[in-house]
Amino acid sequence: MFRVQGLRVAVAACCAGTFLAAPAFAGAAGPGAPGVGDDYFPGYGNGGYDVAHYDVQLRYDPAQDHLRGTTTVVATPTQDLTSFHLDFALPVESVLVNGRPAAVDHRGLELAVTPSQPLAEGELATFVVRYAGVPSSVEVDGKNPWIRTSDGALAVGQPAISSWWFPGNDHPTDKATFDVAVAVPDGTEVVSNGVNTDTSSMAGWTTWKWRTTTPTATYLAFVGIGQYELHSGTGAFGQPLLTAYSDDLGHFEGPAKASVERTPEVVEFLTQLVGEYPVEAQGGLVASEGLNFALENQTRPTYSHLFFRDGANTSVVVHEIAHQWFGDSVSVDEWSEIWLNEGFATYAEWLWSEHQGTGTAQQLFDHYYASHPADDPFWQVTPGDPGAENVFDAAVYDRGAMTLHALRTVIGDAALLDVIRTWVAEKRHSNGRIDEFIALAEERSGRQLDEFFTTWLFTPGRPPAGPENGVAPGARTLSTPPPAVAQLDATHELVHRHD
């Protein structure tokens, strides 16, 4: 011990003038921004660096809801940095930057870090944050998305959740890969994204390790901790499949399994429509308490038991699996672009209904168009810019899906599929904007579509009937709505709540 310490001191003294010299900077170094400038949530995310990987190591005691963690952030500065921010809510014990202690100023969700020396643009940087706290006791601006359950916890939420269990750059524009290791008392299960790489026990604690190898937005990383029945197997295209069901589902268990176990079938159906499945694993988790929504956590969506209160529900499975393309692989550039997530996932449900023979997309379009009178407030929310308070409004979902079907009517089936397939291929594992989608639709269809999209996405009021808007005159509610409507409505009543 003393010999190693002495060697370390000698090396430090010898090399202080060379290896430990401050890096050269291209220009004047400065602080990174405390947000990415999102119009709806300006404080979300941070400027000045790009994250490549998160290594999240946790120890969680369900009885006390106590979380202790060490997260290593592997990043690259995008400018010369004198300081930078991390988004985090729990009490912080220490921060190391490139192995050296850093000064911190922690207020709300903003953890301002000042390293011992500036960070050079383009150079590898590591941030090691040690922390501990009780997540359910920490509120910021009156909000706490952490869900404590009787047997554990769920870190599931949108648009914010990661700050309650690991520090990071919490905005969809900065995706990264993940390693997540959680130690819990023996007999407790932990489910997260990707693939379970190892599970081991020592001294009454079991550590579950999960790895995600495709770029993932921070809000799409999750952990489910508690008593779960786990099933592993092979999904579509030979990918790993893991599903998890709370031990306390009771009479919801049968319909939940009848729905979520169809995930590989849904993956194959959607792949045939829109192209290669974009992530490395498949599955889902069904919780028995704490949730009244579903969320498209990457590779493994999380579902409330309430989706299965009336029986099997494949619509919600289709919705969340569709998000693996629309929202997870192709993520929003700003939260105002949420139609690119929710309108597409909802329209996937319509296409599944058409495939299953429970109502064509045209029948569903006619139903929703006619069932909302022209003076219905539903039409006052514009899916292309709904406002921060309406990010998950029903119009973003249903009027959003109607927009895509109306586009199908205007440009034709083949052109719409070509546009969507091109979109998910060109934007794979990156971010997209509505204006980029409009430009692509015009390019691939050969049609001028500005007025169409302005009417459907950005203009309050019900789009008038007419061929230019993809609405046949006299559209009306069927005397008997398509069978899919009941399940779609029940699904969206809950899905809309996932903020």
Task: Describe this structure as you would to a colleague.
Keywords: Aminopeptidase, Hydrolase, Metal-binding, Metalloprotease, Protease, Signal, Zinc. Residues 53-220 form the Aminopeptidase N-like N-terminal domain. Residues 1-26 form the signal peptide. Residues 312-456 form the Peptidase M1 membrane alanine aminopeptidase domain. This protein has 499 residues and is α+β, with helices and mostly antiparallel strands. The protein has three domains: 31-134 and 155-221, Sandwich (Immunoglobulin-like); 227-324, Neutral Protease Domain 2 (Neutral Protease, domain 2); 331-495, Neutral Protease Domain 2 (Neutral Protease, domain 2). The protein is 27% helix and 27% strand. It has helices at residues 2-15, 253-260, 263-274, 314-322, 339-356, 361-371, 394-411, 413-426, 434-445, 450-458, 484-495; strands at 30-31, 49-61, 66-77, 81-87, 92-97, 100-101, 103-107, 110-114, 125-133, 147-149, 152-155, 176-185, 189-192, 195-202, 205-216, 223-226, 228-234, 240-246, 282-287, 302-304, 330-332, 430-432. The strands form five sheets. It has an eight-stranded mixed β-sheet with strand order 6-5-9-3-2-12-15-14, with no helix packed on it. Strand 17 (228-234) and strand 18 form a beta hairpin. The chain is globular.
